[in-house]
Amino acid sequence: MPETQVLEPQTAFVKMAQAWEQAAAYMKANGDERTPGKMLQLADKTKRMELNIAFCGHFSAGKSTMINTLLGVKLLPSNPIPTSANVVKIRGGEKAARVYTREGGVVTFDPDTEMERLKQFAVDGDTVEWVEVQYPGTFLDDHSSLLDTPGIDSTDAAHKIATESALHLADVVIYMMDYNHVQAEENFNFTKTLKDRGKPVYLVVNMIDKHIDFELDFDSYKESVDEAFDTWNIKPDGIFYTSLAEPDHPENQYEEFRAKLQQLIADRESLVAESVRGAAHHLVEEHVQALKAGSEANRLQWESELAAIQADGVDSTDGEMVAAALQQAQAEAESLHSRAAEARKQMEKELGALLDNARLTYYSTNEAAQSYLESRKPGFKMGLLFAGKKTEEEKARREEALLADLREKVAGNLDFHFKQLMGKLPQEYGIRDDAYNEAVHATQIELTGSFLAAHIKEGAQSREYVMNYCTDVSNAIKLEYRRAGLSFIGKIVAQLEQQASEQGKQLEERLAALRSLAALHEKLAALSRSEEKAREELQAILQEGA
Questions:
Q1: Which candidate, 429, 424, 443, 423, places its Cα nearest to that of 495?
Q2: Smaller CB count within 10 Å for the chain: N or C?
Q3: Nearest CA-CA partner of 439 in 454, 426, 453
Q4: In whole angstroms, what is the distance from residue 505 CA to residue 385 CA?
Q5: Burial of residue 496 (number of CB atoms within 10 Å: 0-12, 13-18, 19+)
Q6: How many Cβ atoms are within 10 Å of 57's Cβ, its own excluded?
């Protein structure tokens, strides 16, 4: 097996960053105006292997004060100003400060001599998008930073956007809560969102100096905090209880919290590597959601059109049901168009089978035919006296004898079964027609002397000739029945065609409705396919950088 290539850390991060940049270009080409910028920010962070620890929480939880205390420098505005209005990033390195405006401008200043400007920028959420400060002498280095985010309970929508926009750059989240507000629902909602995104989350319950021990001992209070987060199925990576107002508070875990931050910074490379991969995949999902938002107007319009189209027995919003109903209706239409022709073919087949199986000539018929044919020979004569009269009477007797035999055989072996079949055929296709039935039962195929004479052929009248004659007469009789049967079949087919025409109009209306529904579902499916295609292609790009 080939050996797996192991990249140096810097090379691996550069490779990932290049994949993030490629993904950003793909997103931009798709018309996404927001996510590509976040992906490029992530790429830049990845190249620098920078660890970002984001502080989130209520505006009153003391985030800015905590950060100032951790740094040993009062860089961030705190009371009486309630909060930063945008993301403020602080990292180690040579002293510098930059402000990134929403118009794309950059303002630089000295964080020592122009501290008031920094505080003004930090609370200016209208024109400022991002504030970045480098400051030496803290526990941070130039590859690690703290992010101070606006309060999650701020009523200003821009504050919320600023907080959310920083999360893709946060490798670890410190979620701070006021001692008295731990049970607030937004705490659970926000931390669950973070954990669902795979972020390491540490909870800091601040201002524990507000605790009154005789009301509830502190261990019971901590148990209530654990139980509250367990109820929401939230498993934080750690919980710290702190007080900045009373550093000597017996339950104060400030030092343990600070030590945890230092440990996180020491584990920077592994934390960042895992974090940026997760963030990149989350940004892919953000891009897919942006695509959905971009097509939402079309989606709503098509869904509205779906609801307006009615097709009996079909839920217009169910694409699979619509497709099945359309397939069935198309099959019915094809069947309807061919029904009359198929019915004619089947009825003619049954008529043919009946005629083929009907036996009309027996021994008695052959004997009667032979006697009849003899009377039709030239020179046939009966007796001497009054021969002419006797001869004609004998001819008539022999003719009637053959006719009687044939009529008996036809009545029993053909006519009865013929009328039974002709009466049954329309019922098989749901047709009830009294006039038709009367016509069937009134059918008479007349057998006459002229009919018998018409099939006599000149020549020697051998036994074989007699049998051939009987066959010819039988076939001629069947031919008459065939003609009558085809006439009845034609009447049935005409009614079927009339039914098909009437049903076809209703079916065409149903088909038109179902085709319209199917076309709308295809448009909706095409949107979903394009979104899924974007997801798959972006995930493939990210995989190249893994």
A1: 429
A2: N
A3: 426
A4: 79
A5: buried
A6: 28
Q: How far apart are CA 493 and CA 487, in angstroms?
A: 10
Three-state secondary-structure class, residue 131: strand
Three-class secondary structure of residue 7 per DSSP: coil
By CB atoms closer than 10 A (0-12, 13-18, 19+), residue 424 is exposed
Q: Which tokens belong to 366?
A: 């052959």
pLDDT of res. 371: 93
Only one residue has tokens 């099945």, namely 324
Helical (H) or strand (E) element with 205: strand 201-206
- At 382 the pLDDT is 80
- AA letter at 223: E
Secondary structure of 49-85 in HEC code, one letter for each residue: CCEEEEEEECCCCCHHHHHHHHHCCCCCCCCCCCCCC
Name the strands in the sheet holding 201-206, side by side, starting at the edge strand that comes first in the sequence: 106-109, 96-101, 128-134, 87-91, 144-148, 51-57, 172-178, 201-206, 238-241
**What are the mean pLDDT values of the chain's consecutive 10-residue runs (546 residues total)?**
52 91 95 91 92 87 89 74 67 86 79 71 71 88 88 55 72 92 86 88 94 83 93 94 93 95 94 92 92 91 88 85 88 82 93 95 93 88 74 91 94 94 92 92 93 84 88 95 95 89 84 89 92 94 86
pLDDT in the model for residue 125: 63
State the burial class of residue 533 (Cβ atoms within 10 Å of its Cβ: 0-12, 13-18, 19+). Answer: exposed
Can you read off the two tokens belonging to residue 144? 């690690």
Measured distance CA(169)–CA(53) in Å, rounded: 9
User: ∠ CA(135), CA(140), CA(141), 5° rounding?
Assistant: 85
Residues in the chain, overall count: 546
Local structure of 192: helix, strand or coil: helix
Task: Report the distance separating Cα 530 and Cα 523, nearest Å.
Answer: 11
Q: For 298-318, b where at least 16 C-beta lie within 10 A, e where not — what string?
A: ebeebeeebeeeebeebebee
473: DSSP letter: H
Task: Bin 62: left if φ > 0, else alpha if -120 < ψ < 50, else beta.
Answer: left
Please say whether the beta carbons of 414 and 481 come within 8 A.
yes
